[in-house]
Amino acid sequence: MARALTASGFDAARAMFLLDLALALIAWPVSIALLFGNLPEEGRPGSLPLVLYPACYLLFLYSLGLYRRDALLDPGRALQRVPFAAGLGAFAASCGVALLLLVLDGAVPDGLPELFVTGAVGFTLAGAAARLVFRALRRMRLFRRRMLIIGAGRRAWDLVWLLRNEGRTAGYVIACVHGPEMGELDPRLEEDPDIQMFRGNLGFLAAAEEFGAEQIVVAPDERRGLKMQALLACRTAGFPVVEYLGCLEREIGRIDMKRLELGWLLYSDGFGASQLDHALKRGLDILVSLLLLLATAPFLLGAALAVKLQDGGPVLYRQARVTLDGRPFRIMKLRTMRVDAEKAGATWAAERDPRITAIGRFLRRTRIDELPQLLNVLLGDMSLVGPRPERPEFIGKLAEELPLYDERHRVKAGLTGWAQVNYPYGASLDDARSKLSYDLYYVKNFSVMFDLRILAQTLRVVLWPSGAR
Q: Strand 383-385 relative to strand 328-334: parallel, antiparallel, unpaired?
């Protein structure tokens, strides 16, 4: 019998969010009732805190990466971050309530400290309970996506490896269909006890129905003998059928550079941002940059003074970088290296780079050295979100070594970006190749909502920097 199953499925991240939402909506009203239940009606908080506190809590859960694969698979790491999300959410909601009521009523309401403490404690308990429930459900082998792969060669093995190590859901149940016309069988797949293998004498549709597939991925090494009529039968029976590259793009959030096909890139969805999208993006850049400059001005001034007092050299470091359409511009950063750091020429920063000063190492780890780039954003040289700007000295070599490298210049360079929130700092050709896979995904799928997601996730990178040099 045909099964009309969606490719998106009910994955682990959605399940974790719904658990957080349910427990937050239970815990918060109960906490409010216990705290203010004995007060008269006029002494109780209004509807604004009831809505704003859970919303801010859920936003910070997302911002701190608690719906990412690593947090879903590592309950210990997740439980360490839940109190941060609860505390930051309660603080942001308290500030929001105070500001809104000050504007609307002309006075800050009583009870905000109690609301903050109640929110921080209550949401911490709710978040911990949600993750313990999720862990128990995962032990019951729920939230695992059933995927049938057509082919069992090297391409299929690459897919399996990437899904297991980078896939957006918490687990996959995988089966492969293989016949001699699809090329050689990869022994790693044949020997894997967790992979069910169907031989070519069983049709694709029969294998999908027997396995209970939620999605069929076409990934044979040899396509010339592929039975397209059999694949069409799967599609018309209600089984979603996607190509290898399309599956990877959605499941791991980047474009696989190893097996990239220009034909797929040409005909797949994407690259459709409108003039309105770009206008909204520019408005977001200006608004957020001004707010961030105002909010971080004390830190920026203090850091500038520390740089100046350390060795008496210049505070700002201006360096040529490349942005939209390959146009060069001068990026501004707080100086973190010695004045003579590049007397021998331009080189990538290395781990434990001796050229970095003591103050500079702190500024890099906290990302404070990046704050002057907000001026570049206001000037229009950069955007808040986009590929990181590279130096002209490296662009030519990277473009020669990496196909489609120049495509990342279809949008403005960014202060943060999809590569920055998904890949640690890198300063080599291999790192550049990996970051390009994320940059191409961003250029292909750009939208203002995507920018907002990246901005939210940047908080995790700032609080838990990975590989800053």
A: unpaired
Of 201, 206, 174, 205, the C-alpha closest to 190 is 174
User: Is 200:209 a contact under the CB 8 Å cutoff?
Assistant: no
- Burial 387-414, CB ≥16 within 10 A → b, else e: bbbbbeebbeebbeebebbebbbbbbbb
The owner of tokens 């300063």 is 427
How confident is the model over 348-383, as pLDDT tens digits?
565 567 788 888 888 888 889 999 999 999 999 999
Using the structure block, give the residue that is written with the tokens 């200006």: 286
For CA atoms 275, 278, 284, 287, the dihedral sign is negative
**DSSP H or E stretch at residue 341:** none
pLDDT 10s digits, 72-125: 888 777 888 999 999 999 999 999 888 887 777 766 667 788 889 999 999 999
Q: Is residue 96 a contact partner of residue 49, using CB atoms and an 8 Å limit?
A: no
Other residues' Cβ atoms within 10 Å of the Cβ of residue 169: 21
Tell me how far apart the alpha carbons of residues 468 and 447 are, in angstroms, rounded to a whole number.
27
Which of 389, 406, 390, 466 lies closest to 440 in space, CA to CA? 406
